[in-house]
Amino acid sequence: MSSSLLVSQGHQPYVKYLVRFGEIHLKSRYVRKQFQDKIVANIQDHFAFRRVECLTSSERGRIYVETDNAEAAHSILRKVFGVVSFSQVEEHRADIEEISTAIVKYSNSLIKEKSSFAIRSRRSGTHTFTSRDVAVAAGKAIQEAHPSLKVDLKNPDLELFIEVRQNKAFLFHEIVKGPGGLPLGAQGKVLTLVDNERGMVAAWMMMKRGCYTPIATFDGEEYVEPLRNWDLNLKVQRILKLDELKEIARLNRVEALAVGWNLDELEEKKGQIPEELTVFHPVVGLSSKDLEDMVKRICEV
Questions:
Q1: Measured between alpha carbons, how far is 279 from 276 in angstroms, rounded to an integer?
Q2: What's the CATH code, domain 95-166?
Q3: Residues 19-50: pLDDT tens digits?
Q4: What DSSP letter does each residue of 111-150 carry, written as one string?
Q5: d(CA 190, CA 196)
Q6: Superfamily designation of domain 2-90
Q7: pTM here?
């Protein structure tokens, strides 16, 4: 397990988040460790930039973040590439009796009488009990405390999650989606032309693939500004014409360019791109609805 010190001094953290990542599990052990450490470092950087204190730790498959500012943490974790999802959790010992008692107290404010619920449990490590044992014991405890509740495993009104990892158990009821992808900085650099919403989305999609993305723009600051919330060290260069891209690429030591052009623009402008640059078209297959949804996601505060 690894950990970091608080990024700033202040009150003792009291909210804990369990952070999940997905795609990096496909990598070798060495690369997976590098990518996981990169996600942790990026999380720390985002908290420090917002002047919010945090304490991070990690183990294989999970990252933990503690902070005294839940609202800021929620916003920050939704903007860290590589984070697939996260949950605010309550931590207990990996003991069935303690879990069963704790889940009743935890759920009291969430339960509506005469409604339905389900327990979703999972386990990692060596224990004397199974995931099913945990779910059965926890479900029984809740039904004894609230006899009007019904169990509905398919479409419950309330889902309660229990994740047992080694000697700890985490209780939660919400799973918030992150951007997913690879951690920013895990791959190379790709210059991106941002002069409209499609260009902004193209840059964001390259960031999601782990690429640092220096920006070239004619006069598109309104489309560049939202990207600064995703890359805290975003480099932006204003240009007057496309043939300046060659020099900007050289200065940034990149050999690839991403653009947000549609098929008509691609046909019209393809001869204006320096031949030395490999060109990526990440948004060319997006529907108008997909593009609109991604613009909203990028511009979220």
A1: 9
A2: 3.30.2130.30
A3: 998 766 666 777 888 899 999 999 999 999 99
A4: --TT-EEEEEEEEES--SS-HHHHHHHHHHHHHHH-TT-E
A5: 18
A6: THUMP domain-like (3.30.70.1510)
A7: 0.89
